[in-house]
Amino acid sequence: MSKGSKAIIIGSGPAGLAAALRLKEQNRNLQCALYELRKQPTTIGGAIGIMPNGMRLLARLGLYGKLTAHGSSAQVLTVHSVRGQVLAERPLVGDALQKTGFGYLRIKRTALMEVLLEAVKRENIPIHYDKRIISIKEENDQVHAIFSDGTVDSADFMLGCDGIHSAVRTLYVDPDRVPEYTGMAGLGGIVPLSESARATMKSLGVTLTEDGVFITAPCTARHDEVLWGLSREVPLPESGDVKDGWEVRRDEEVEHFKETATNLLKNGDGEWANLLKEIIESTEVVNFYPVHKLPPGRWARGRVLLLGDAAHAMPPHAGQGVSMALEDIFILARVLQSRGETTSFEAAFERVEDIRKPRIADVAARSVENGKARGKTTPLGLWAKEMVIWTSAQLSWFSGIFNFGIDEKHLQYDVDQEEI
Ligand SMILES: Cc1cc2nc3c(=O)[nH]c(=O)nc-3n(C[C@H](O)[C@H](O)[C@H](O)COP(=O)(O)OP(=O)(O)OC[C@H]3O[C@@H](n4cnc5c(N)ncnc54)[C@H](O)[C@@H]3O)c2cc1C
Question: Which parts of the sequence belong to the FAD-binding domain (predicted)?
Answer without folding.
Answer: 7-365
